[in-house]
Amino acid sequence: MKRTKRLLAILLCLTMTAALSAGCGKKNTNAEFDPEAVVMTVGGEQVPLKEAYFMLKWQQASYQTMASNFYGEEWYNQDLEGNGETFLDYIKSTVMETLEDMYLCRQNAEANNVTLTEEEQQKISDTAKTFMNANSKDAQDAMMASEETVRRVLENYTYYNKVYNEIVKDADTSVSEEEARQRTYSYIYQDLVSTDADGNQTEMTDAEKQQYYTKFAEIANAAKDSGDFDKAAEDGGYQVSQHPYTAADYEDDSFKDINGVADDMKVGDVSDLIPVDGGLFLIHLDSDNDEERTEAMRESMASQKQSEYFENWLSPIRDAAKTEIDEDLWGEIGFEKALASVVEEE
Q: pLDDT grade, residue 339 (50/70/90)?
């Protein structure tokens, strides 16, 4: 679903007591931007740049350490999925989507009997003060952060969260046991395609394949005799992996053909050899109903139904709002300066 990524952008904010510090690198250039410039209009209401900028910088700080360790100093310029969208593009679009939905929820809060309590308003105010007191002037400037801006972002998120909870109360979150039931099998796999040093692949000869068929048959017999699939596989030189699956995501599972074999097995069974295109599987059914994973799947499926219900409610409101983004202004915004963050939940 298009809109699901938005929640990543602001999830930490309500409980944050964070210390942010401006890091090394290119001098921050946000001084050239007017914090009061209108970056987006939602349902006729203007959104100032400072709110979007603060949210963007918070996300930069949240991702900075982990992402830079994997992808280097300019992690945000990486095209992680090969679709032409950089990490920065992704985060910027997420911020815009999140802001839009927060504004729409606040605008529709009263119609859904949602207000903020005095306690919630006080918590928002206290959190904004804590944030400002915990950060240097340089860090505040680097994020276009003021107490008013932080308070406004937290207030909008609180409205979003309360409206979401109010709307999804009517969602049908029933999930049948069969839908959520998680079966789990252990497996070993042998690739029957050889790869040379240059990455060129060649299918093995029948004689070469037969060697592996024989080895897998020996492992299967040893596992059936001993009742210990893991040991039989390890003795045969293979590392065992596990694969849980459920009816809910069956068709999207790259192992669905192997799942089909597991469906006809009983707990403790070892399969016959399972040839696939370019390889060979052998599996052992570990569990017909992994209760812990089944409950986790049930909760995940129920949550997904809530998200879909909420999206169906918000989508026509979003269409009617006719949101406009100043693409020229937002397009100029980037990560000019590294930020480091330490987040502590209250």
A: low
Quick check: 7 and 99 in contact, CB under 8 A?
no
Same domain, 158 and 29: yes
If asked whether residues 208 and 145 sit together in one domain, one would say: no
Instruction: Tell me, yes or no, whether 152 and 190 share the same domain.
Output: no
134 in any annotated domain: yes
Q: CA-CA distance, 189 to 10, in Å (whole number)?
A: 42
- Domain extent for 234: 183-288
Q: Single out the residue of 95, 90, 104 nearest to residue 319, CA to CA.
A: 104
- 79 vs 171, which has greater pLDDT? 171
Helix axes 118-134, 147-167, angle to 10 degrees: 140
3-state helix, strand, coil in the chain (%, to 5): 55, 15, 30
Query: What is the pairing mode between strands 38-42 and 16-22?
Result: unpaired
Same domain (yes/no): 153, 52: yes
| Mean pLDDT across 181-191 | 94
